[in-house]
Amino acid sequence: MSEIRFTHDHEWVHLIDGVATIGITDHAQQALGDIVFVELPQPGREVAAGEAIAVVESVKAASDIYAPVAGRVTEVNAELTADPALVNREPASGGWFFKLVPADLAAIAALMDEAAYAAFVETL
Amino acid sequence: MTNMQTDPPVQQTPLAALHAALGGRMVPFAGWSLPVQYPAGIIAEHRQCRERAALFDVSHMGQFSLHGPGAAEALETVAVGELAGLRDGRQRYSLFTSDSGGILDDLMVARLGETLHLIVNASRADHDFAHLQAHLPASVPLRRHPDRALLALQGPLAVKALARLCPAAASMTFMAIAALDIAGIACLVTRSGYTGEDGFEISVPGGDAEALARRLLAEPEVAPAGLGARDSLRLEAGLPLWGHDIDELTTPIEAGLTWALGKRRRMAWDFPGAAAIRDQLDNGAPRRLVGLLPEGRAPVRAGTMLVADDGSAAGTVTSGTFSPTCDAPIAMAYLRRDLAGDGVAVSAMLRGKPVPAHVAPLPFVPHRYAR
């Protein structure tokens, strides 16, 4: 089973075999501009839905990245530490931030699908 | 992801249509709508200015003029610096000071004949104009020039690009001012800027601004740059920004701007706040504006608290970013005077965690002015 969902905080959530990979959308990386630093959560950390667990910094400003759903962080993208601009180049693939095992898979299904997110971005 | 909304529309510069055509991302800044960046992005625009030439719209800056033989003497009653002795065709950095020695604004003053041309910060333009109106005698006419735009052409190749359209610009030296025609447009040109690079600031009638900007952008050395690059460039150059690194509560001594007071004025002590400023010069200021190099790669932003080795409060960061030239975070901060020496180690409290940092000389990137 594989599905991609989106949050109102401009994160994407890709669920594959019960593990969610989280990154920020192309819209988000464009809005942020050149990304120069990413701070990632500790693997193993239990996080609540909506909890700020990572930080992304552009030249201009710092922005929080939130856990889209509750769960346990299993892995982070170490490549971003050395090459934070990977988020600008490949927001939807190589620039992923972290993976987590959701406490409740239904919480992911409740997020926006691609069409709903596209409609949401149109309203901004 | 937060703070992705922008505020309601604000004043437009004469280059608003050009910014839209160039794909500028407009943000509100000091009551104006200005591009924070173009599609190239802040880092590319920053490098463009360090390596070639970048064109900035700085039309938000306040442009004033004072006229008549007593203008400079009158200005000296509210501002520091050797202004009465400013020669025809020269420009100088100055400060409006308060009676308690605080910095009300920083400004550029240039003399052309019997006219003094002032450039002040956008965020302070209304304040400064009212302040001058209240303090200048009626014999010194004061004018504001909202009808004029201001373009900054900055970078090592700025002179090459501008000289193609205006050969006389090449013979100007740093901090010179001249009335010059550029591509047939009457302009007021200074050889100065806010990036640490050689370059020019060009005051132009608003109606001619887009034509001039397009003409400059057509030169192969030149590309547009926005406020984002302007901020990272000035911070690398160690140049303070009013409202961040200097304000009414900081003095010229604390800000490391003692040089701007002027020798004669430091003998006469005849500017607002002179007593307080003199006391700090004689007895030391309680804090100093310093350069700060945080370890690691995380930017340390304005407002970050600094802690000394013994755990005591050391000061506060006033500007901070990631430096494209240094490929590292850089910051400016006020530090307690016993800590304000090159190499002194402090900790920046970043999201609750201490990040080691040390005091470094300013500027972070050497100035390359056409002296």
Strands in their spatial order, largest beta sheet of chain A: 1-2-3-9-8-5
What is the count of DSSP helices of chain A, taking H or I runs of 4+ residues? 5
Helix/sheet category of chain B: alpha+beta
Remind me, CATH topology of the largest domain in chain B?
Gyrase A, domain 2
The residue ranges of chain B in which pLDDT falls below 50 over 5 or more consecutive positions are none
Strand order of the largest sheet of chain B: 11-12-13-10-4-14
Roughly how many Å apart are the termini of chain B? 46 Å
Say which CATH homologous superfamily of the largest domain in chain B is assigned: Probable tRNA modification gtpase trme, domain 1
User: For the residues shown, what is the average pLDDT of chain B?
Assistant: 96
The amount of beta strand of chain A, in percent, is 35-45%
| Topology, number of strands of chain B | 20
Q: Which CATH class of the largest domain in chain B? A: Alpha Beta
What tags apply to this protein structure?
heterodimer, A: 124 residues, alpha+beta, OB fold (Dihydrolipoamide Acetyltransferase, E2P), 5 helices, 38% strand, globular, B: alpha+beta, Elongation Factor Tu (Ef-tu), domain 3, 2 domains, 6-stranded mixed sheet, 6-stranded antiparallel beta barrel, 9 helices, 21% helix
Produce a short descriptive summary.
The complex is a heterodimer of chains A (124) and B (371). Chain A has 124 residues and is an alpha+beta fold. Chain A contains 5 helices and 9 strands; from the N terminus they run βββαβββββααβαα.
